[in-house]
Amino acid sequence: MDAYDVIIVGTGAGGGTLARHLAPSGKKILLLERGDWLPREPQNWLAQDVFVDNRYVSEDTWYDTKGKPFQPQIHYFVGGATKLYGAALYRLREEDFGELRHHDGLSPAWPISYDELEPYYTKAEQMYEVHGARGEDPTEPPTSAPYPHPAVSHEPRIQQLSDQLEAAGYHPFHAPCGILLDEQNMPYSRCVRCANCDGFPCAVHGKADAEVMGVRPALEHDNVTLLRNAKAVKLETNPEGTAVTGVVVTHDGTTETFSGDLVVVACGAANTAKLLLESATDEHPNGLANGSDQVGRNFMFHDSVAVLALSREENPTVYQKTLGLNDFYFGSDEFEFPLGNIQMVGKSQAPMFHGEKPGETKLAPEWTLERVARHAIDFWLSTEDLPRADNRVSVDRDGKLTLSYSETNAEAKKQLYGKLRSLLGKLDMNEGHLFHRFAYMKNEIPFAGCAHQAGTCRFGDDPATSALNVDCRAHELDNLYVVDTSIFPSIGAVNPALTAMANSLRVGDHLLERLGASEYAAAAA
Ligand SMILES: Cc1cc2nc3c(=O)[nH]c(=O)nc-3n(C[C@H](O)[C@H](O)[C@H](O)COP(=O)(O)OP(=O)(O)OC[C@H]3O[C@@H](n4cnc5c(N)ncnc54)[C@H](O)[C@@H]3O)c2cc1C
Ligand code: SF4
Questions:
Q1: CA terminus-to-terminus distance, the chain
Q2: CA 276 / ligand 2 centre spacing (Å)
Q3: Exposure pattern of 434-463 as b/e (b: 16+ CB <10 Å)?
Q4: What is the pLDDT averaged over residues 168-173?
Q5: Which atom of ligand 1 is nearest to the CA of 266?
Q6: Distance from the CA of 186 to the center of ligand 1, in angstroms?
Q7: How far apart are CA 279 and CA 285, in angstroms?
Q8: Given the CA of residue 484, which atom of ligand 1 is nearest to it?
Q9: CA-CA distances (angstroms) from residue 71 to 12, 394, 454?
Q10: pLDDT tens, 346-404?
Q11: Which helix (H) or strand (E) holds 181?
């Protein structure tokens, strides 16, 4: 059995970031990834292949509460979901770390404050080369450093939208973008500023994803090994059940077991829960880290709405994801509870609509899909999803994964949609015409769009109500850690990846200390 100092299972936002952080320590690190490199090929940038044919979506089948099968929109590659992400790299708001009252109930506090995570947010922004502008968004939390790169400029139609929002009394801001764009030196810029970013893989590795910014730099260190197509199927423990002794992996048709002094799970919220639940032993009959019966519970995602408005003039924008609006994050004049975040989403392209049912594409009778796409201005609305014990991942004896979910905060979501709709007339858009866009969510079960899944393995101070302690170590096992979005006690209403990355760096410092390599802590970015 090969022995490592650290085994990291999963190479996405959580695992890939941790790998890079630990790599310079010289410790022997094994990365296990069930997927392969995402192939670099022309189809990376073809809407038909990506959105209609689901070329990069896993072939997994999950089941809803009624036993109905569906295909979850998850991605098994080196870099995980970040290979396809829109790279909108937001910090949670400072208030999101405290208890917040929502229309449907309380969003619980985190066991750490924003201040404790702030230095790691700064490091994560540096590691992922985030482009942004401080001081524009009134809900922005306090920060200790400027963004490492200037904001990505708005193209003319989005600049016009920004100006019009400002004229109407709102506070649009330049969205934080993790793309490796150098507008001052385009011949040398890795990102070429194309229309195929949000939801697509980047064919030129210009996106700051966890493969490009996490795994590849980690592999420059000889002490780091990546095993691809290696699916962790079980964690073994010592007879007392106090430590993980082996990670059982299926790889190339064989089963192998690896051992590590420290084992870190970062498989994404649903698969992390699955692995822990399937690793039950006599000492841990309900699964590892599950003395509190919290593993798999509190599944959250942003049941976001992608909508398009029709601009009176054509919208020739190429890279549209440059603007955000948080004026309704904590409520509005008419609604005292938080509504959420509005941001742009990748520009509509006619082929994206082709997978939709005829009823859904009947946007405006006299408009062809091509014309709709030319005039579309596309928004992404996210309202906070609240943790509910019954919203959960469970796994039966055959490994069948069931995702039970009931929507939360539907009224707040409706209000946010209504707010945007009410603004259209002031923004040179066809008044009243705000259509749902199904490109991300054409699957019939709404939660199949589980891109922002989180919360199945939350961390906390109390072992009775959490799976992990404040260091993200399992309460009951001395060497088992989790660093993906499953640790979130609440999800806020902004995109989750930067928070997972920052928390990975925070936990990474703790691990370096445990490994006797604390001189490498805080140095990584
Ligand atoms: C289309 C899309 C757009 C998005 N846009 C944004 C955005 O703009 N901004 C943002 O902040 N977030 C965005 N997200 C969400 C973001 O990508 C995720 O929140 C983030 O990647 C989650 O990180 P993670 O480490 O929890 O999981 P992942 O990044 O999914 O990583 C999990 C990894 O574990 C691997 N794995 C799973 N099971 C096993 C196993 N048993 N053994 C070995 N390996 C395993 C997976 O293959 C994967 O590589 C988007 C996601 C999608 C899909
Ligand atoms: S906009 Fe840049 S980072 Fe995004 S896919 Fe295009 S080239 Fe890649």
A1: 33
A2: 35
A3: bbebbbbbbbebebbbbbbbbbbbbbbeeb
A4: 97
A5: 25
A6: 29
A7: 9
A8: 26
A9: 20, 16, 18
A10: 888 887 776 554 444 555 556 788 888 899 999 999 999 999 999 999 999 999 999 99
A11: none
